[in-house]
Amino acid sequence: VTVARPDPGVIDRSLLAADAPAVAPQLLGGFLVSGNGSERIVGRITDVEAYTADDPASHTFRGPTRRNATMFASAGHLYVYLIYGLHHCANVVTGALGDGQAVLIRGVEIVEGHEIVARRRCGVGPRHWSDGPGKMCAALGIDRRHDGIDLCDQASAVWIAPALEAPALVHTGTRIGLSVASDRPWRWWLDRS
DNA sequence: TCCCCGATTAACT
DNA sequence: GTTAATCGGGGAG
Predict the structure, then answer these.
(1) Which nucleotides of strand C lie within 7 A of protein CB?
(2) CA–C1' distance A183–C12 (Å)?
(3) Contact call for residues A11 and A87 (beta carbons, < 8 A)
(4) Angle at CA A174, nearest 5°, toward A172 and A180?
(5) How far apart are CA A134 and CA A87, in angstroms?
(6) What is the pLDDT of residues A86-117, one digit of tens each?
(7) Partners of A79 in the β-ladder
């Protein structure tokens, strides 16, 4: 009789088939799960941004390339790329096949796997373990090897479970770190505990 | 082929 | 507030 929390299972792919700006806020409060068994890490999604193909800030703005191929895949796939030659960024592909849109996961709160994350994020306080896109990937162990995997499959190395209930308060604002299209209010985030 | 610069982070002053 | 780290993408030539 020791059920720590209900198992919500994997997120419904149809929820991800809408446009990125509609999907992004719905991912808040959901759970990003990486690893298996004793190596499992779970992060509650707290910060997201939307990118679309008609968006000058998006990798897909100028059409398909080798790097952004996964962003043109069908909804529910994971697009991972290397930024500044150092850090990884993880995105959830949305919309229809060929659209080239995705939601960037900017931050999560670690709710399971604290010991592993503490080891991986050595010297960093829990508050800063995963409060940025690169930090989040480092904490969950996500890198380019995971590019293209299916987040709607519980057998994948990384997958997503839906939020148990809609978040009470969602903040909205402009996206971080852009030199173009920085006025689109396509960032959504939750207060962190 | 060359070259600039990025959906960042951490460590500075 | 400023800046180095570090490398691949992709536009220009």
Answers:
(1) 5-11
(2) 28
(3) no
(4) 160
(5) 5
(6) 999 999 999 999 999 999 999 999 999 999 99
(7) A91
